[in-house]
Amino acid sequence: MTTLAKPATRPARPEFSSGPCAKRPGWKVENLQGALVGRSHRSKPGKARLKEAIDQTRAVLQIPADYLIGIVPASDTGAVEMAMWSMLGGRPVQVVAFESFGKDWVTDVLKQLKLKDTEVLEAGYGKLPDLSKVRKDADLVFTWNGTTSGVRVPNADFIADDREGVTICDATSAAFAQDLDWAKLDVVTFSWQKAMGGEAAHGMLILSPRAVARLESYSPPWPLPKIFRLTKGGKVALDIFEGATINTPSMLCVEDYLDALKWGASIGGLPALQARSNANLQVLADWIAKTSWVEFLAETPAIRSNTSVCIKVVDKRVTDLPPDAQADFAKKLASLLEKEGVALDAGGYRDAPPGLRIWCGATVDASDVEALTPWLDWAFQTLASELQSA
Predict the structure, then answer these.
(1) Is residue 223 part of a domain?
(2) Helix ranges, 97-164 (H)
(3) Which among 166, 290, 381, 387 has most CB atoms closer than 10 A?
């Protein structure tokens, strides 16, 4: 085998982590000089800045005017669990799980909330379960995009227009990159550090009028800790959705999120952000089409993520190895790319088939994905040659 020479061009920004994700192009820490550090988040300027983050989120994501948007603690996980703990238990529940986070929500529903009337619709990595089994009489918990599997739902057609239950959608790696069908979604959550590359620890909780009605008509039988309480006196606590957060947010993180939102608006808003993600995915698709050693983990194009793109090694020199050796090869592949400084944090999820996970969200430049592909070939061939000579 002829050894490939190291490529001459490197990605200008090698950050391909699936969370926290790459900062937006042109980001500098100096952009945050206006942050209200040392000020109370409950001061008039503090509340105004938090309200601005809510308003800018609505504008960029094109969220309906009658949906509430709140900033909540504990990232996307906190937002999902606030919704589940506050709303589930009054009717049957279905949980769709096709990657690790969906399985976390299964654990919450079955082992923590211990809801008996629960059905799990499950599929392995790279696939979706049979969504035709989603019932309109049940509450539904699902991820729109599987961060660890590279799989997304193609649309929300599986959710009935005349549904009786509420839909709780974890959209943390789909927001700002994919079309969310707001009319079908009652609770939508995401975190700042995912698609827009913000700083960590804060989540967004978006509620439809149907979700508000559920909160105001149903009280769960279990105690709710303070950070999960969304109602006061039987009514939704509207101040949460106007900038009065339940616990103390980092105003530095707020400023960083605002910076990302303003950048998104400046380049053309949601359509432009989606176009950037699609362009990044297309670069990898074009490369994979002419490359024999790798394939998408999601083989069906319609369910293929344009953010957390997962690729698997299919070369027989690797697939003929025992499972542990295959996993070791994938780890070495990610480590070699990191050592060369061309792809940081691009290893596949530990439970997924051996391969890589390359973030292609809107804050990544297509030119960097293009520059990465020759390095992927070089790293694979380098390690495959070592296998042959061993």
Answers:
(1) yes
(2) 100-107
(3) 166
